[in-house]
Amino acid sequence: LSTASYLIGIDLGGTAIKAALFDRDLRSIDDVEAHTPAREGPDAVIGAMAGAVTSLLKAAKVSKDDVSGLGLGSPGPLDLDTGCTLDLPNFPGFANVPIRDRLAEAVGLPVVIENDANAAALGEFVCGSGEAVSMIVLLTLGTGVGSGIVQDGRVFHGAHGIAPELGHMIVAPEGAPCECGQRGCLEQYASATALVRHARRLIDREDPDSRLRRGLEERGELTAKSIGEAYRGGDPLAREAWDRLANYLAIGCTNIARICDPDLIVLGGGLAGAGDKLIDPVRERFFDIHWTLTDRKTDIVAATLGNRAGIIGAASLARERFL
Ligand SMILES: [Zn+2]
To answer: Which of 123, 187, 199, 249 sits at 20 to 30 Å (Cα–Cα) from 137?
Structure first.
């Protein structure tokens, strides 16, 4: 184990590579962001990550010898034992790439990898909303629904390293088809994508005076953000779309509570940026449908680290492994 006291966390996203330098207490020293050349294949992506590390160390005036290791949060699926990507959607050429070892070679530091949603859950557990509790479940509501489970500082992986995939728990029998091959997955009801799709359906159906419709006509586009704004402004269609999302999300959260009884279910990702406006109806519905066999112990809260959760979780893994 190294006596060097700095750590690096990297969050590999489809459009951006975020890298940050931390001290041993996970206080952030410096960070850099670089474009992800996802379409250019593994050499370019790994090279860009190594380049980000070089500029990070240079900006912070820290020598590589003083860094004990690097944690990488990567999109999945991953084989955590071998450190290989299995096949990354939106990253052509990434089937069976030994991303951990190749990054380690490129930067000259030991590397530990983790699925990005798991890394974000660990970040929230260690430094965010989960700091004072023993178990959290993170749901990230974005293009899809990502998830991570952390208990007593350990990330839950299941028997085959696939879990958790809470976005693909079925919440609607015979429901909307999902790209995963199932029907009625939570992701089809509680992601930003699903919110926009449903709002569009409502707009097509009725209410020529809806702010949503007017906003759509003015801006020429409908986004989760504009739906959130219309909701805050009291638009009935936006409310209908949002309440539907909240209902399915509450069903998902109830299933999560029955399966693993966490202290907190933490909602993160782009949609959770809507803050209390999103959380309140989900909590309300969650309390409503709660069983009567025990008091309600699990609560639903907003993530507190925003898009830094993944990078902090990745650095935290490096600390655990290498420091
Ligand atoms: Zn699915």
So the answer is: 199
On whether the CB atoms of residues 304 and 129 are closer than 8 A, the answer is: yes
Characterize the bridge pairing of strands 299-302 and 264-268.
Answer: parallel
Contacts of 72 (CB under 8 A, 6+ apart): 9, 10, 12, 49, 99, 100, 103, 111, 112, 113, 114, 314
Which tens digits make up the pLDDT trace of 181-208? 999 999 999 999 999 999 988 888 865 6
Q: What is the pTM of this model?
A: 0.92
Choose among 47, 40, 20, 161: nearest CA to 102. Answer: 47
* 177 CA to centre of ligand 1 in angstroms: 8
Provide the 8-state DSSP code for 179: T
Q: HSE on the CB side for 53, CA within 13 Å? A: 29
Q: What 8-state DSSP symbol labels residue 112?
A: E
Mark the residues whose beta carbon lies below 5 A from ion ligand 1: 168, 178, 180, 182, 185
Tell me, in angstroms, the distance from the centre of ligand 1 to residue 168's CA.
Answer: 4
Nearest one of 57, 52, 127 to 316, comparing CA atoms: 127
- Tens digits of per-residue pLDDT, 276-321? 888 999 999 999 999 999 999 999 999 999 889 999 999 999 999 9
- What is the 252 CA–ligand 1 centroid distance (Å)? 13
DSSP E strands in 36-130: the ranges are 67-74, 78-79, 84-85, 111-115
